[in-house]
Design goal:
The protein has eleven helices and twelve strands. It has an eight-stranded mixed β-sheet with strand order 6-7-8-3-9-10-12-11, with helices on both faces. A four-stranded antiparallel β-sheet has the order 2-1-4-5. It folds into two domains: 181 residues, Rossmann fold (3-Layer(aba) Sandwich); 87 residues, no CATH class. With 344 residues, it is α/β, with parallel strands linked by helices.
Length: 344
């Protein structure tokens, strides 16, 4: 450890997983009711999951389910209201600021909008080199060469390092943002809807780039998206969120072949062509999503999905379901389905 990395050493046994979220909650102050009374809206409600070294985990769910809030809380850009995030064995909230800053170089974020995430007044080379300079990862004279290597790594011409962001297309800007994230040599890359603002014609190129980089560099990848086709192509495991909670978690192949939670089944059924190749199209189409997601400020009692669930029982209004083991590396928060599995 050098003077610029005051992070306490991890234990002699490499901690697994690389990233762990335990009971995460995040509330935001607001006002509700006709009188505008102060209230707290929970964007995250007891989120638990892990990400192993080199693993790609997809986080999916409808807009407003808490995916982007989760990304910011995991990186400690937004503090959790409750719960804990540990990275490589370190509790992020317990670290002093110098240690947290040093550890942050190993956790990088790629934002959704490549047009907003880059400074329009500075060259792309200067922006990519910022992380290298801030964390003292190379002598100043070596930074231009490092920037050139990073640009080549994401498929861009190193000779264009002196250009401004407006001289590039949306897809090229997102490649620049990825190069900037890779500059500090991270172990974890959090990609928050990284292709949703891009033309369809270039989305696949950026996704394939992420897939290649993850394999080549051994990166852990947390990929947040509403595009289930992309998640299926890119991720090893999938976490499904609804109204701030994780309702299902499973290996990607198993989840897409046999979704268990009624919300997951509905989400897949609502995705065009998602079920076209597995012979279960008719059954899944019947389970399509109905109605709108309830307001996080006034969620239903018990299971939050019960107001839209085709299989809801009266008992679903009484108790908030918790994630439970469903076998084969799967977890699900639905007592009726778990009961069926137990009696199968």
């Amino acid at each position: 450890m050098n003077a610029h990395s005051p992070v306490p050493p991890a234990s002699s046994v490499a901690p697994t997983p690389l990233l762990r979220a335990e009971g995460l909650e995040r509330g935001f102050k607001g006002r509700s009711g006709l009188l505008g009374r102060a209230s707290t809206v929970l964007a995250l409600r007891g989120v638990d999951f892990t990400l192993a070294r080199g693993e790609a985990v997809g986080v999916v769910g409808e807009s407003g389910c808490g995916k982007s809030t989760l990304a910011r809380v995991l990186l400690h850009l937004t503090p959790a209201s409750a719960g804990r995030v540990t990275f490589d064995g370190h509790d992020l909230a317990a670290l002093p600021k110098p240690a947290l800053r040093a550890l942050r170089r190993r956790m990088q974020l790629v934002f959704q909008d490549p047009f907003a995430s880059l400074d329009p007044r500075r060259s792309i080379g200067a922006q990519i080199g910022d992380g290298i300079a801030i964390h003292h990862l190379a002598p100043a004279g070596d930074i231009p060469a490092k920037v050139g290597e990073l640009l080549a790594q994401v498929g861009l011409d190193p000779a264009h390092a002196g250009r401004l962001p407006h001289e590039f297309s949306g897809g090229q800007r997102q490649r620049i943002a990825i190069a900037r994230a890779l500059a500090t040599g991270p172990d974890l890359l959090v990609a928050d809807e990284p292709v949703s603002a891009l033309d369809v014609s270039v989305q696949a190129q950026v996704v394939n780039l992420l897939k290649d980089l993850r394999t080549r560099l051994g990166l852990g990848l947390l990929f947040i998206s509403h595009d289930l086709h992309v998640v299926r192509h890119l991720c090893d495991r999938v976490v499904v969120m609804y109204l701030g909670r994780v309702v299902e978690e499973a290996p990607a192949a198993e989840l897409f072949a046999n979704p268990l939670h009624p919300y997951t089944r509905s989400l897949l059924a609502a995705t065009p062509s998602m079920h076209a190749r597995d012979g279960s199209g008719t059954e899944r189409a019947k389970a399509g999503l109905a109605g709108e997601m309830p307001s996080p400020a006034n969620p239903p009692s018990g299971c939050a999905f019960r107001t839209r669930c085709p299989r809801a029982l009266p008992s679903c209004a009484d108790t908030v379901p918790v994630l439970a083991d469903a076998g084969a590396g799967r977890r699900i928060a639905c007592p009726p389905v778990l009961s069926e599995i137990a009696h199968a």
